[in-house]
Amino acid sequence: MGAWIGAGVPLLIGTVFTAVGLGILRRARRLRQEGAMARGRVVRLETRRDSDTHSTMYHPVVQWVTGDGRTVEAESSIGSNRVVFRRGAEVTVFYDPDKPKRMLIDGYDGRAPAVVFCAVGAVCLTAGLLVAAFLVL
């Protein structure tokens, strides 16, 4: 029984990492394909301290006008430990017309972290499957 736990842990971790990575990629793809596009301007950077790593994360806050004339200001859910955008920078945003604060900045959509999550997930899933296969033999 304990040996099966050895296969279950990497399978669980792999499933979670893969699901998170695919979720990020799916959200970005959906906003690009089904969302509206607008030109916006970075109005400020929100900073957060990561309590685990003690690093500072910078999240750009963008303001734009929606297709129906509303001015929206939204913070990117993607942050970086370095300043990627300066205040006043012009950016393209893709947003959900029904919930405009659900947006992404073109070229800053979390693709790289999502690929890393998927790769780690694939490695863990493979390891778990190999352990399970050896337990069956």
Task: Characterise this structure.
This protein has 137 residues and is an alpha+beta fold. Helices cover 43% and strands 31% of the residues. The protein is built from two helices and five strands, in the order αβββββα. A hairpin with a 5-residue loop joins strand 2 (56-65) and strand 3 (71-75). The radius of gyration is 19 Å and the shape is elongated.
Describe what is shown at a glance:
With 137 residues, the chain is α+β, with helices and mostly antiparallel strands. Helix content is 43%, strand content 31%.
Which structural category fits the helices and strands?
alpha+beta
Shape: elongated
Hey, roughly how much beta strand do the residues contain?
25-35%
Distance between the termini: 15 Å
Portion in helices:
40-55%
* Mean pLDDT over all positions: 88
Biggest β-sheet description: 5 strands, antiparallel
Rg on CA atoms, Å: 19 Å
Topology of this protein?
Blueprint: H1 2-34, E1 36-49, E2 56-65, E3 71-75, E4 90-96, E5 99-105, H2 111-136
Antiparallel strand pairs: 1-2, 1-4, 2-3, 4-5
Descriptors for this entry?
single chain, 137 residues, alpha+beta, five-stranded antiparallel beta sheet, 2 helices, 31% strand, elongated
